[in-house]
Amino acid sequence: MKRKRLIVQLILILALVGISAVLFVIGKGHQLLIDNKRATIDGVRVEAYEWVNVYVNGAKKPIEIEEEDRQLAKIAGPWHHIRIEILEDGKVAKTLEKRFTVGLQNSFLLSLQKMVEGKEDWLTPR
Amino acid sequence: MKTTGKRSFKNLLIAYAVPIMFIGLSIFTIPLSGFSPEYLVQEMVIRLARNSFLVLALLIPIIAGMGLNFGMVLGAMAGQIGLIFITDWNIVGIPGMALAMIISIPISIFLGWIAGNILNRAKGREMVTSYILGFFINGIYQFIVLYMMGKAIPIGNPALVLSRGYGIRNAINLEGIRQSLDNLISLNIGKVQIPVATFILISAFCFFIIWFRKTKLGQDMRAVGQDMEVAEAAGIPVNKTRIISMIISTVLAGFGQIIFLQNIGTLNTYNSHDQTGMYSIAALLIGGATVSHATIPNIFLGVVLFHLMFVTSPMAGKNLIGSAMLGEYFRLFISYGIIAISLVLYAWRRHKEKERARMNLRGNS
Known about the structure:
heterodimer, A: about 130 residues, alpha+beta, Immunoglobulin-like, about 50% strand, B: 14 helices
């Protein structure tokens, strides 16, 4: 009887530890620094975009990033979705959507230029 | 017949003296404050959501005959330690809140166990003992938070640590979990916003208490609360039951403090828990509860009446005398005074009951 109780208690403790680990991962907050700055990719210079609207995780209100600017987005958990609209003369010239996963680091740097050019290192821990 | 009716009315008046007094006071302070009904309803809804869980945590020790658990600040401290850790790790939203609750559980269990053991050595003087125990554990809490965190206990977030390199700052911004539960499901009725998710959690807790009372352990607690010697003779492990009731109350107080602070959005590291016990107990007593008897309706009535006084009295004081400070003093005076009045009324009522029982024994009506 005592042994059975001990086993139940152990299972409960392990379950709590497991739930805590899951909560830690899905609740971890991150800072996402979104860069709209000129970059050199494979020796080619890519200019900053005139104006970019960034929608993180389906947000209704975009993060507006001007040329040579950097903005901060706060995200939580490992799985995210980003949609960008590159504006030229006030009109949407290009739209791009991506899903991405982040680790447990606190801060990440997202380069819009590298993202548009399809480079793998468009999102790097900081 | 007429005499019996008169007596039952008198008994009713005595039993509900405190809520009646507060309703009377509110009738004066509400119009004096000049607040609109909408504003007051919104405030009451917010405060019900914020405080009810904490007050509910007081029920189980009352069932077990341990009186008003002034030691609930122990649980509040455990909850705050959970919040410090999740803020350091930057765990946000509902997962952050849940993780803070999980972190608080072992600390609350340990503190509740200590409290239960101490109170078993101070039977009959539980309330004053738990009150002093709160001060003692507060000292240990301050030692841990002020000297060990950042040194022996790693804290990585520089925004949390004092400039000297260890110890936690006075105020912690809980923006990561601020109103995350309140805004999870939010309903607007007119201009009044209702935090539905928080009320669902509070309702679940109410159902838990109703269910718990019917369980073997709940029945044991009631038996212990009614008469310890009889319960012991019936084979109920009195001391163990009392310890369990303290542990449950402390764990729930920890959860309550986390719900309270997610609504406020700021943690005063060294003060937030200070008044938790006092205000929760005052609210419960204002709702018509006594040291030995409390129900769920007592809690909601008490929270509404107490906070109605809290909200209206500074403004009423300002409008009446021209000084809001008077209202501030008034509400402090009320919260401490009401505990004193309730305890006096309880003692007086018990004395009367004993007298009545003695008279009945003599066959004198």
